[in-house]
Design brief:
Elements lengths: L1 E6 L2 E6 L2 E5 L20 E3 L5 H4 L2 H8 L3 E4 H9 L4 E4 L4 E3 L4 E6 L6 E2 L5 E2 L5 E7 L2 E5 L8 H8 L4 E5 L8 H11 L3 E5 L11 H10 L12 E3 L4 E3 L1
Parallel strand pairs: 3-4, 4-5, 5-6, 12-13, 13-14
Antiparallel strand pairs: 1-2, 1-15, 2-3, 7-8, 8-11, 9-10, 11-12, 15-16
Pfam family, one: Lactamase_B_3
Catalytic activity: 3',5'-cyclic UMP + H2O = UMP + H(+); 3',5'-cyclic CMP + H2O = CMP + H(+)
Protein name: UPF0173 metal-dependent hydrolase J2Z22_002957
C-alpha cells in the first residue's frame, strides 16, 4: 500500500493499481499538494459532513465516474448534488472490487454546512477501516479519544493509523499518543493540524511523545508518501 498525504485529513491510498481518496479537501485548502483535476481514483471515501472533509468529493466522484462511500445520511445529501453513492452505517462493512471498507464510530459532529451559514443533518461522523490487499489502514476521521479505540485495536490488525492531532476540534497530541498505543498499529501518521491557526501544533512534540512510548510515528508533509512495502516515505 502506498499512502500519499495531500494535506489536512486527505490521503490518496493505492494498492495493486487501485486508488481511493479519503476526505478530499483540496480546492479550498491553501496547503493542499494536489488539485481535484489531477485526482484519478476508483472511489471517494468521506468520514463526515464538514466542508474541510467533503471538500471536492462530488466533483472528483463525477469526474471519475466512481462512488462516494460514506454514512447513509451524508450519502443521500451528496446524491442530491449529482454524486454516485454507496451509503453505509457505523459498524457495517462492504467488500468492493478495490478493497474492503468498514465504518467505525468517531466522536464528532457531521453537519453539512450551507452557504447561508445553516446546516443540513449529516448523520454521524465516522472513522474508516480500509483494507486493500493484505494491508489495513485506519483513518480515524475527526474524533476525540474514546475508549472503544481499544476495541478497534483488539479486533483489527492495523498496519497504519491516521490520527488527528490538531486539538480544539479533535483530539490533541497527548490524546493521540494514547490512541496510538491502544490501536497498536505498526505505524501512526498524524493529520488534521496546521491548516488553520486554531489547530496549529508542533509535530516535533508529537514525535517526541511517540518515541517515549516506543511507538512508531512518521510525520508526512503535504505531497509526501509512505509505502508499507519499503517502510520509507518519499517526496
Amino acid at each position: 500500500m502506498n499512502i500519499s498525504y495531500l494535506g489536512h485529513s486527505c490521503f490518496l491510498v493505492e494498492s495493486a493499481g487501485k486508488r481511493v481518496i479519503i476526505d478530499p479537501f483540496l480546492s479550498a485548502n491553501p496547503n493542499a499538494s494536489a488539485k481535484k483535476e489531477d485526482i484519478h481514483v476508483d472511489a471517494v471515501l468521506v468520514t463526515h459532513g464538514h466542508a474541510d472533509h467533503t471538500g471536492d468529493s462530488i466533483d472528483i466522484a463525477i469526474a471519475n465516474q466512481c462512488p462516494i462511500v460514506t454514512s447513509y445520511e451524508l450519502a443521500l445529501q451528496l446524491a442530491v448534488q449529482g454524486a454516485s453513492i454507496h451509503p453505509m452505517g457505523i459498524g457495517g462493512a462492504f467488500n468492493f472490487e478495490w478493497g474492503r471498507v468498514k465504518l467505525t464510530p468517531a466522536w464528532h459532529g457531521s453537519g453539512i454546512e450551507l452557504e447561508d451559514n445553516g446546516f443540513h443533518y449529516g448523520g454521524v461522523a465516522s472513522g474508516i477501516l480500509l483494507t486493500m490487499g493484505d494491508t489495513t489502514l485506519y483513518h480515524a476521521g475527526d474524533t476525540a479519544l474514546f475508549g472503544d479505540m481499544k476495541m478497534i485495536g483488539e479486533l483489527n490488525r492495523i498496519d497504519v493509523a491516521l490520527l488527528p492531532i490538531g486539538d480544539n476540534f479533535t483530539m490533541g497530541i497527548d490524546d493521540s499518543v494514547i490512541a496510538a498505543r491502544w490501536l497498536n498499529a505498526d505505524l501512526t501518521i498524524p493529520m488534521h493540524y496546521n491548516t488553520f491557526p486554531l489547530i496549529t501544533q508542533d509535530t516535533n512534540k508529537w514525535e517526541e511523545q511517540m518515541a517515549k512510548k516506543q511507538l512508531k510515528g512518521v510525520v508526512l508533509n503535504a505531497g509526501e508518501s509512505y509505502s508499507t512495502t519499503s517502510s520509507v516515505y518519499r517526496k
